[in-house]
Amino acid sequence: MPMNPMRPLQNKRPSQTAGVRKMRGTLAIALLLALSPAASAQSTEGRVTVELSSFKFTPKTLTLRQGQRYHLHLINTASGGHDFVAKEFFAASTIAPEDRDKIRDGRIDLHGEEAVDVILTPNRAGTYKVHCSHFMHSTFGMTGEIVVQ
After folding, report:
1. Which DSSP string do the residues of 17-73 spell out, in sequence order?
2. In angstroms, what CA-CA distances link 90 with 10, 56, 93, 125?
């Protein structure tokens, strides 16, 4: 029987079509499982964001788990400089080697509208004080705490 070039080819092998459908279904299920909350819960790093603004930290209290790795994201939303001073907390934490230079004497400096990221793991449970050491900033309320459970 001659082939009509204007007519699309028909698949004469139904088993091949069923196999392709089965493979597509398997791939779709694998993709859904990979994107499910259970898969993302296996992540070993939590992200914590702290906003530094005119005389306050938001949130004022951070609650972290001992032994869990965190990505600490500090954002200074003010036009002037601030710092995040937590000497005892940083001393009781393991800081990623590439981020150690960002912390000097237990302090992270942030210029106006700057963000700094630090990867760390708190090693000891406790409550640690945080403050901004710029003149009068702590007096005006730029204080907080980190609770490690």
Report:
1. HHHHHHHHHHHHHHHHHHHSHHHHTT-SEEEEEEEEETTEEESSEEEE-TT-EEEEE
2. 68, 20, 5, 12
Longest alpha-carbon distance in the chain: 93
**Nearest CA to 50 among 90, 137, 108, 92?**
108
Residue 72 and residue 49: Cα distance in Å, rounded?
6
8 A C-beta contact, residue 64 and residue 147: yes
Task: Single out the residue of 66, 62, 61 nearest to residue 149, CA to CA.
Answer: 66
- C-alpha distances out from residue 120 to 45, 80, 86, 123, 139, Å: 9, 26, 13, 9, 28
**pTM value > 0.85:** no
pLDDT digits 0-9 by tens, 46-103 = 999 999 999 999 999 999 999 999 999 999 999 999 999 999 999 999 999 999 999 9
Q: What does the DSSP assignment read for 79-116?
A: SS-EEEE-HHHHHTEEEPGGGGGG-BTTEEEE-TT-EE
